[in-house]
Amino acid sequence: MPFIGNTGKIEQIYLARLDPQQVEDQQAANLDNIRTGDIEASNVLTSNIGINVLDPTHNFELGSNLFMDDTLSPDEFVLDVKKRSRAEKLFVTQQFGVANTNPTHAMDVADVFFIETTAGAVNQVQIDGNLRASNTLTMTRAVWGANETVVIDPSADDEVLVQGNVNCQKLTATEGLSFGANILFDDVGSNVLVLDGNANQIGDFVITGDLTCHNLVSTGTAIYNTVNNIATTNAIIEVAQNAGTNQDAAIVFHQANESNAFIGYVHQTSSDATAGAAGNPGIDEFAIGRCTNGAAAVSMDIVDDITAEEINVHVYGKLYTSNSVGVANTHPTETLHVGSNLMVADTGSNVLNVTGNAFFTGTLTSNTGILIGSNVIVDDDAATKLAVTGNTSSTILFATDKIAVANSAPVDSISVSDKFRVSATGSNVVTVEGNAVIQSNLISMSNLAVGRQVPNETAHIQGSLRLGDTAGADDDAEYGIKSTGQMAIHANDAGAGDSHTSLLLKAGASTAREAKIDVRGGDSNTCVAFSTLDVERMRLTSSGNLGLANVQPAERLTVTGNIQLTGSSGAIFGEAFAASNKSTKIHTDTAAGESFIESRVVAGKGLNFRATSSANFGDPAMTILDSSNVGVGQSQPAAKLHVGGSTFVNDALASGRTDGAFDHAATPLTVTNIDDNASINSPNHVLNLCRRGASSSTIKGQKAEFAMARWESSGNNSRTRLDINLAHDLYNNVNVLTMRSDSRVGVGTNAPRSSLHVRSSGSENPEGNGLLVFNSTKNVDTEDAIACIQVQETGGNPFASFAVFDDDVNPATRTGWSIGVDNATTKDFRITANVSSVSNVQQTALFIDGSTSNIGIGTDVTSYGKLSVEGDILMGNKLEFGGVTGDQRTRDGGTGDFGH
Question: Is the pLDDT of residue 38 over 70?
Fold first, then answer.
């Protein structure tokens, strides 16, 4: 190794070429290599030989398509050919692989075709996939399936054996065909078909000869078309043995040119007609009638209209029933029930019950009496032969003594109860105790008393007075009380206390519909109450307070509910709403469609809003000054909006969506986007800061947008991401800065890979396309521009990494250099071919000792001189030593001392 210093020497210098004009081409070459056009030698001893390649990495390397390595590893390649090769014969002693780098058989083609030459192997050739061949010749047997599901063996008893189903378009057997031990087709036997067991026939089964069977089950329609009698040896025939729920069972008698007749048991279903209608009884029943069904039906379609096709049932003999009989009635409740109006009950109190008229052409005879309803009784044995409860009508009622109505012991000629009496001999011809209706005028020449003996006024009525029709009648006439002079209606003109002191004016047919005015003149309950629909709506108290929907008004006007002022009218509070006055007006301009709360105040004052839950009010919650400044929690706002305290834009996050302890109210301003978010990297607006463009042009405004999102899914954790976007062209968003909760910041990118990730673009412009630390101060030599990478004394290494990233491979790679300080020992400076570590000794290219400032190239051993080089040195021009007679510094008048 040569060492170069002030007084060092060079033992040997090897030059790759002797052409001094082209030496710069050899600065990166290693003198261990020989580069030449031709080599002629008896023996060439070297580790690598490269043909058409400068730096061979294999023992023999031809361009980039053929490599040879003398390797002992079974997994490495001795010969590697990247493109096509040709051989007259190719001999392989063990395995040969096509698209398979690790063959396990004599020949492997990928993982789908294998040839095995080992003696005794079960499968000499194995194919995982389809095989297509013009002809396939098998000498012994062919097998398909791992469990020999299909076997073709000409020497076996069953030449073709299939375990499973066979699906074929047509199957021809020249002699016979059998299925198990119970089904046999024999073309030449005495029985063509032999079935041992039950047969289930779904479709039609046509037999031209005899059929003998033990059981016959048909799931379709069984039709017997021969016009012959059917005889059974058994005494019982059962119909619909295996029928489902609500399936009708019947015997149908075919009728030519008319509906079939049937007898059977039919069911009522939800799709049938109204219960009781013809053909739809409403209950399950045994029926005889006509239908439109044949043998294929599962329910009877009964003919409802029987007028055209009546069916007569004639019983030759007696007809018995142990229960009721219904005629035109499907639900008889008595012994004989005809329709719904005639019933004969053998055990009832009324043997015959007729609802409706009964016509007799002869005499109706009753041995005791006749009862017509419950109000007319004809009883021959009673004292009263005819008793009528209710009204009677007759042309003339003649009595030789007295007539009594509702009076069993009449005294007068005519007695109606004991309230109306007519006496032919008494002092009062007519006596009425109770009300009397007079159709014409009632004239009294003196005072008239009604309900009392002595009147105090011209008309003195002790009781109520009614005008119009009978109580309860809907009278559409109009009645009134009129006076040609003053009229006074005075209630309780001599009473005391609070009872019965009201003057009531009512209108309405019922309590729930009436409207009334209740004028109360009691000692302590003096007021006027107005009610509608049996609810008091307005009250004027004795103190002059008026309540709307409020029965205890505490102010001059107390309203429970909304107040509407129609049109553009408004409510004015304080003085008249005019200049120099102090007043407030609330109104809506209906023409313009806008509303106003307007307040006239003195200078420096405003409209205040206060709220409290205690007895006293504090400072206003909100104030609008005459200067248009608005204060929230500020009674003297100094700006257009002056907030004293915390401000929320939308609701603060609920405690369940935070750590439960964070108090948003402690922050002056909290802005919340209320759109729920659980997705990843889907930012949404939280805050916009904007400035308007020029009003007289189309220049767009300026905007800074703050957006937030989650950058990672991690359970219920926040994983907050903040984007700052600026409007660039047509008010669009350009991402400028992204900050994440893992302390990563992106400049120009929203997916920072490191603590600070700056997105760069373009080339050849270090000031415009890179990172710039620029001190713009001029003419001051103490103004520096400093980029600092700093660690603690006991910390790691401060270094800069220059990496080339390749994510086109998997996994992605980073290669390049690191430059910085190795903080492990004496703060050594290194340039290392390792992007991840500057302290990697094996990959260090340049080393500067932190204590001596000695330099090492390719080595850390610098104790021999200021510069130590591990390897060869190639110089393009000259090497000169200072301090030697005739050196350049001496010739220039200097000394050999470099100084510092």
Answer: no
